[in-house]
Every structure is written in C-alpha cells, then in structure tokens.
Write a structure and sequence with these properties.
With 327 residues, the protein is α+β, with helices and mostly antiparallel strands. It folds into two domains: 3-90, Phosphorylase Kinase, domain 1 (2-Layer Sandwich), CATH 3.30.200.20; 101-325, Aminoglycoside phosphotransferase (APH), C-terminal lobe (Aminoglycoside 3'-phosphotransferase, Chain: A, domain 2, Alpha-Beta Complex), CATH 3.90.1200.10. 50% of the residues lie in helices and 13% in strands. The chain contains ten helices and twelve strands. The chain has helices at residues 44-59, 101-117, 137-157, 163-188, 191-200, 235-248, 253-266, 271-282, 285-295, 304-325, and strands spanning 18-22, 25-30, 33-39, 63-64, 67-68, 77-78, 84-90, 94-95, 204-205, 214-216, 221-223, 230-231. The strands form three sheets. Strands 1, 2, 3, 5, 6 and 7 form a six-stranded antiparallel sheet that branches. Strands 4-11-10-8 form a four-stranded mixed sheet. A hairpin with a 2-residue loop joins β2 (25-30) and β3. α6 (235-248) crosses α8. The radius of gyration is 22 Å and the shape is globular. The relative contact order is 0.12. This is CotS family spore coat protein. InterPro entries: CotS-like, Kinase-like_dom_sf.
Amino acid sequence: MNEKALTVFDQYNLKINSTYRIKGNYGCNVEKEKYILQEYNNSNEKMAAMKILYNYMEDKGFICDCVIENNEGNYVTISEDGYTYILKKWFNAEECNVNNEGSILAGTKKLAAFHNILRDNRELLKDVRAFHPGKNMEKVFERHNREITTIKNYIKKRKNKNFFEMSLQDIMDEYKKQAVIATDNLLKSTYASRFEEAVLMKTINHGCYNHHNILFDGEGIIMVNMSKINYAPQLQDLYDWLRKVMEKNNWNISLGNKIIEEYNKINPLNSEEYTILKIMLSYPEKFWKIINYYYNSNKAWYSEKNEEKLTQFLKQENLRHKFIENM
C-alpha cells in the first residue's frame, strides 16, 4: 500500500488525530476510536451486503470490524491513483493464541454463537444478491483427488528424485486411498442435501474462521476479516477451525473433545453432522496441501521446508486417526 492511500481518509467525515502503518495497511486514530484502511477488490454491492450483516451481528451483541460509509454514502472509496479501499473499525486487541486452551475454547463458543444467529437468513438477506454459495466439499475433495493423481504420476516420471520425492513416492498410494475413501463416504452421506438446504436458507458460513481472524481485547472476542462469507453448511467452519487447531496442537485428543463439547453446548450437532465431520477430518487435507505446494513451486532448488512439513505431518498421523476413531 503506497502513501497516496492516505488521501482516501479525506473522503470520510472523520477528525483524524494520527495515522500509522499496520499489517501492510494504514490505520488512523479518531478520538477514542480506531479505523483501518484496507485495499478492496470487490463491489460496493458486496460491501453493502456485508453492512447488513454487520448491523445484524452488532444488534445481537457481536463486535466486528464494521465497514464505514464515505462522504458519498458508499463503502468502496477510490484513491487518487485509482486503487479501491474500504475503511473499517479497528481495535487494540491480540490474535487468538492457538496454543492456549482457554482462547481456543472461547473462540469455539464464539463460532457456535455466530452460527446460531445466522442459520436461516431468508428474511434478513431477501434482497441481497452479493453473497454466493461457498465451497461444495464433494467437489473440493474430487478436485484434490485428481491433483493427487497428477502429482503421483509426475513424481513417478522424475528420474533423479530427491529425498522428499522418494519419501512421497513411498506413501502416495496410501494417501490417495484415504482421499478416495473419504470422498466416497462424503458422497454417500447427507452432505449434498445439506449443502442445497444451506444455499436455499441462505445459511451463513464464515469461510475463513481461524486464529488470525478472531481478536481478544480483554473483554471479549472481536470477529474480523469476514469477506469470505458465503452460503454453505456451517459444519464446514467447524471442520476448518477444528482441523487447523488440532494440527497446531499435535492432534491433542483431550483438546479436540473439549472443542466439540463447547460447540455442542451452544449449537448441538446431530448424529448425521458428527458423521460428516468425521468424514471431512478423515480426508488427508494436510497431505494434499504439502504436495500441492511442492508441485506448484520451483523444482530447480530443494526446499527443506517441504521435508520438514512432511515429517511433522507423518508424526501426527496416528494421533489424527485415533482422534477421529474416538469422536
């Protein structure tokens, strides 16, 4: 972000005391409040829809990085050099500590509460056209499976394989099998009908609920960076949150059970949802990420980071399967 972005502040009715850099953006202080200016590459219509959602969440007691209108009543503002920005509320707060059990469980409760208030939004969002269906996990898994096959064939043809590639070759069939089984099980489950129902009911899925996007200010949790909001089964948020937290905590079974328990206290899962959650967790997502990153990176130099990630992944595998079996 260049300094010409600062001229965007002139298009808002704010008495700015000072500006500062924050995470590649510009922030400003206005009396007791803070705002952050972010580059934005979507429509004003999308942000107007977000404003409806922000207002509804705030009415329900949530704190979020609500977008601010400019002097013309728009949410998207154009700078002198043609870049587009939005201005949002900001806070003196810290990201969720993904290694702190209390913070993780508090984040889980917030996710469940968020899901509770946004399950059926046909009335709230009846005139909104800017939100769209999110990821269909059946299609995601099927695409990943094709990519695993492509990478498997690529490695097989490599003549001078390095240690990482030889390691992959030894386990590729096993993880392709796991991927296919998980995909088949998802196709046999009630997931497809749940996805259709979520789109029909305009069920809100956060789309990017992780420790970077929930902040703690000492009094509560603030939800930020919700630009990936979509219509999809809310179980997908729980899957993303649970998987990422468990990967960061060596698939700690006790912690995983507590996460599900805390979510259930506010938004109980039924037996079919448990089944779908277990199926999604059984898909070797981390394995796909590692090999996909390798395949799309520069092969001219050897990355020890890839080797480290694969080693760490394999160390956690028994615990991952044990957690899933005991859910």
